[in-house]
Specification:
two-stranded antiparallel ribbon; 9 helices; homodimer; mainly alpha; 76% helix; 2 strands; 2% strand; Arc Repressor Mutant, subunit A; 209 residues; 2 domains
């Protein structure tokens, strides 16, 4: 790595803490890439270390177990995606009402067909039959779920004190998860677009009650 | 197997065709059980043959590849579940309107949290990164999807010529798939029941337009 540059900074001269952070980020990105490309069974720690260009020793130093690496990667990606969604939402400016809801729904739907969803689903399904991974994933699932719900409420400018609104936001996220699974093997975007158009009308009625 | 009895018939005396059918059914049931219990990576052909009490030779005779065995198992279970749903629906008798829709929705939701869903999801996710399995699964996914849609339309007594009804039935199935995934690691039934109660009201409005 000595002499390599990133953003014009010679990594070998960066402080230890900064180098650690970069190593971690490369491992987390490589983990998501390998989960998307090879699935759970193919995304072994060896394959991930190779992809990241990080030694096994350094990998074990930062993430002692496969579970710790994979969970950190899913959490990292969830945070990145939430930040992206907030940036995209800011770009909507003063857009309000039905137009805003439609655009937000498209943005959320994209999250459930992108790499975060695919990587997370690989880990979720593997965790079902892996007690150690499952125990570690359950609190993360709850945290990511809560944050996704809060983000959706914010972006949709939804008032959860109105009866039915909370359930409608939840149903939207569950629907999008189902549409994500339907998109795993084939491009389901035509059907998804038609279905979401109808859902947007439904949602608008509930949110504007 | 000699001398064992099933439904009072001595299997060793059953005709060859009947014995083949029984062997196949044991293999298919064992495949689903192993997928549910051990996940995709643990449900190897050896583990499945052991569970079924069938020799590797007999297994290879009926299902030459892991993909053929797993696909036959998912298709078999989908047919069984569809038949069960029709029997449960028949038991609803003359129940109509909102009451009927509510009960049908509960029955469909149970399908997306039961062993068929879990076994199918294991196969779906594995197929994403396994080209041979993926190629074989895509037509089966389309067939099972069409049949599930038709079944839902029948059971809900839905008129798809009414605008929005077709999309509402599709959204229902996609929502239930999303709820199935949300139920993988933890018992999500309390949240699911509350959410489905709200969706039943929505659906009733659309179906009775």
């Amino acid at each position: 790595m000595s002499g390599a540059t990133l953003d014009g900074v010679t990594i070998s001269r960066a402080p230890q803490q900064e180098r650690s952070r970069l190593t971690q980020q490369r491992l987390l990105s490589a983990t998501v890439e390998c989960l998307v490309e090879f699935g759970w069974s193919g995304a072994t720690t060896t394959v991930i270390a190779d992809r990241a260009g990080v030694s096994r020793g350094a990998q074990l130093h930062h993430y002692p177990t496969r579970a710790s690496l994979v969970l950190a990667a899913v959490e990292h990606l969830a945070e990145l995606r939430a930040a992206e969604l907030r940036v995209e939402a800011a770009a909507l400016g003063g857009l309000a009402g039905h137009d805003r809801h439609d655009r937000v729904l498209d943005m959320l739907a994209a999250s459930f067909t992108g790499p975060l969803f695919v990587a997370a689903l690989e880990v979720w399904v593997a965790a079902r039959t892996d007690p150690e991974l499952r125990a570690a994933l359950i609190p993360l699932e709850a945290k990511v779920g809560r944050e996704m719900h809060r983000l959706a409420v914010d972006l949709l400018d939804a008032d959860e004190s109105t009866p039915g609104v909370r359930e409608a936001v939840q149903a939207t996220l569950d629907l999008l998860r189902g549409l994500g699974v339907a998109n795993l093997l084939t491009d389901d975007s035509a059907r998804r677009t038609a279905l979401l158009a109808a859902w947007k009308d439904q949602l608008a009625t509930i949110l504007n009650r």
